[in-house]
């Protein structure tokens, strides 16, 4: 059952489930993909999230009731989403970048080598994008790596920094303040303001895999 | 071309923003006062949504290297052209080598300066809007700096125009803002909903283009809520655990996890943009039908403006 709520006077909020599951997620993505494909003139933008899809519309072109009617009449099959994309992201876990590795090790009782192995072994589903441009939320981190945020956030973390926060792991997409425990850094831009064809490295629904590179490979990556 | 002799407090290149990238976590950005933005472009005969300067509280000093037409709308920052006071809300003819500067802010918070023919700037994701958090848009993703130069488009031929006084900046010490209940409105306790609708909230100093942080009676949900992040749209009012609401604006992140108690209606977002830290807001619930009527009234007002010329 899809929940429909008006959200301000220019958006409608679709809710596909109370909790995040792969099935709910697939529905969010399928709906977003379908709406992009049919490209309705009165739809201004979409914000797909964990279990919801915000549809921004133009009230000058369609009323809320009419839009509700259109959406309720839509048949969207969760399987209509294309094949999944696997994005492999190199990460240098050297202490130069993994400045909180010791703290994560102390909290989890694991060695740095074990942390790197567990972090790179897993495939992560991109459950949504948000927070900062191109930033992706990953589901599926190994429970053994769960580690609380830093007591006090850092004022500036460079883009590319790879961190752990609670049950989440991710990569800072732009320079920003942040409280995640940093275990490494990727040389690949997550948000590339200069690449007109691909500003954003990953999309919702992609599968992300990290692989370990050493400091030398990191330095030579973009040469 | 114009050159920036002094940048002012916070002067940004802005336009209507990036409408189609929120799926990727890219905020809308763009001008906060869309009414004043449209009027400024109208004053100088721009038919498209050209880039303008959004000037906050203290204006820049800039020099014109060619003659053109400009229009200044929104906040009244006492503009001076070659040292002489000039009116806002009407087309101004600017000779070559003229210097435009500003005085004290006597009304509102943000002024908009449009140039006939617009600014010639590369677009990123369909827009020139400056989004400083990600260093995107404008000249290099930052506020204007001393020494910056911006190429101007070719001035258009048109009749001189004047904005009717009913459309001038309406900033006031306490603004009544019309809102609709937000998706999590019903999770708030009765007392909080009464407080929200009947008391005054002050705009805190720590406010910016991402959002206005409000200070007033704290708001609480019946039970602690743990929400999964979900969409945010312009005007969304979210309530973090400290109970002090935040009104989210154009640079707000695209998603958030705090309960959304209400949403400012589109027709009132421009009024909101002219309130400054220390000013107050009162929130008043309306219906979706009322919000849409107000929107249509405003659109008609703008449409008639163009026809009258």
Q: Your description of this structure?
A:
The complex is a heterodimer of chains A (223) and B (309). Chain A folds into two domains: 3-81, Gyrase A, domain 2, CATH 3.30.1360; 86-220, Cyclophilin. Helix content of chain A is 22%, strand content 30%. Chain A is built from five helices and 13 strands. Chain A has helices spanning 22-38, 64-72, 101-108, 112-121, 215-220, and strands at residues 3-6, 11-15, 43-48, 52-57, 86-92, 123-129, 136-139, 154-157, 161-165, 168-171, 176-178, 181-185, 207-213. In chain A, the strands form four sheets. Chain A has a four-stranded antiparallel beta sheet, with helices on one face. A four-stranded mixed beta sheet of chain A has the order 5-13-6-7. In chain A, strands 10-9-12 form a three-stranded antiparallel beta sheet. Chain B folds into two domains: 2-160, no CATH class; 174-303, Beta Barrel (Cyclophilin). Chain B has helices spanning 34-43, 190-198, 266-273, 288-308; strands at residues 2-6, 10-14, 52-56, 61-64, 68-76, 79-81, 84-85, 92-94, 99-102, 107-115, 149-150, 174-181, 201-203, 211-215, 230-231, 236-238, 246-248, 255-256, 260-264, 280-285. The model of chain B has no long low-confidence stretch (mean pLDDT 95). Chain A binds chain B through residues 5-11, 13, 20, 32, 44-54, 56, 59-60, 63-64, 128-135, 137, 173-174, 176, 191, 193, 199-200, 203-204, and chain B through 19-28, 124-125, 133-136, 141, 180, 182-183, 228-236, 253-255, 260, 263-266, 288, 291-292, 295-296, 299.
């Amino acid at each position: 059952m899809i929940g429909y709520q008006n959200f301000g006077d220019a958006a409608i909020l679709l809710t596909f489930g109370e909790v995040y599951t792969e099935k709910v997620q697939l529905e969010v993505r399928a709906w977003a993909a379908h709406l992009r494909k049919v490209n309705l003139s009165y739809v201004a933008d979409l914000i797909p999230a964990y279990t919801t899809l915000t549809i921004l519309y133009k009230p000058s072109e369609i009323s809320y009731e009419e839009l509700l009617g259109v959406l309720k009449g839509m048949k969207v099959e969760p399987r209509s989403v294309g094949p999944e994309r696997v994005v492999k992201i190199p990460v240098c876990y050297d202490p130069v970048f993994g400045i909180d590795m010791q703290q994560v090790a102390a909290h989890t009782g694991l060695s740095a080598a074990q942390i790197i192995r567990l972090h790179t072994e897993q495939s992560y589903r991109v459950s949504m994008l948000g927070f900062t441009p191109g930033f992706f939320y990953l589901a599926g981190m190994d429970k053994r790596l769960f580690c609380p945020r830093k007591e006090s956030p850092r004022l500036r973390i460079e883009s590319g920094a790879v961190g752990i926060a609670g049950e989440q792991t991710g990569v800072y997409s732009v320079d920003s303040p942040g409280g995640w425990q940093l275990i490494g850094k990727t040389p690949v831009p997550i948000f590339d303001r200069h690449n007109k064809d691909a500003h954003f490295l990953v999309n919702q629904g992609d599968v992300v895999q990290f692989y370990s590179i050493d400091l030398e490979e990191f330095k030579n990556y973009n040469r | 071309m114009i050159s920036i002799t002094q940048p002012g407090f916070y002067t940004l290149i802005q336009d209507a923003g990036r409408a189609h990238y929120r799926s990727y976590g890219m905020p809308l950005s763009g001008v906060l006062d869309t009414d004043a933005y449209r009027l400024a472009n109208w004053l100088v005969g721009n038919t498209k949504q050209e880039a303008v300067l959004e000037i906050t509280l203290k204006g820049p000093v800039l020099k014109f290297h060619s003659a053109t037409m400009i229009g200044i709308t929104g906040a009244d920052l006492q503009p001076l052209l070659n040292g002489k006071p000039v009116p806002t809300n009407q087309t101004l003819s600017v000779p070559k080598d003229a210097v435009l500067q500003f005085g004290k802010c006597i009304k509102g918070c943000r002024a908009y300066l449009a140039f006939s023919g617009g600014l010639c700037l590369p677009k990123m994701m369909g827009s020139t809007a400056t989004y400083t958090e990600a260093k995107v848009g404008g000249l290099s993703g930052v506020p204007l700096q001393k020494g910056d130069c911006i190429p101007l488009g070719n001035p258009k031929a048109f009749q001189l125009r004047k904005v009717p006084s009913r459309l001038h900046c309406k900033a006031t010490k306490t603004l009544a803002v019309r809102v609709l209940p937000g998706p999590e409105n019903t999770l708030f306790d009765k007392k909080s909903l009464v407080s929200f609708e009947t008391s005054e909230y002050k705009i805190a100093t720590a406010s910016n283009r991402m959002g206005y942080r409000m200070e007033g009676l704290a708001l609480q949900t019946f039970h602690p809520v743990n929400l999964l992040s979900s969409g945010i749209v312009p005007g969304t009012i979210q309530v973090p655990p400290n109970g002090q609401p935040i009104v989210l604006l154009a640079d707000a992140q695209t998603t958030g996890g705090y309960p959304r108690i209400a949403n400012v209606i589109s027709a009132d977002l421009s009024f909101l943009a002219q309130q400054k830290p220390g000013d107050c807001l009162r929130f008043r619930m309306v219906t979706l039908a009322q919000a849409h009527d107000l929107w249509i009234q405003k659109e008609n007002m703008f449409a008639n403006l163009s026809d009258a010329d």
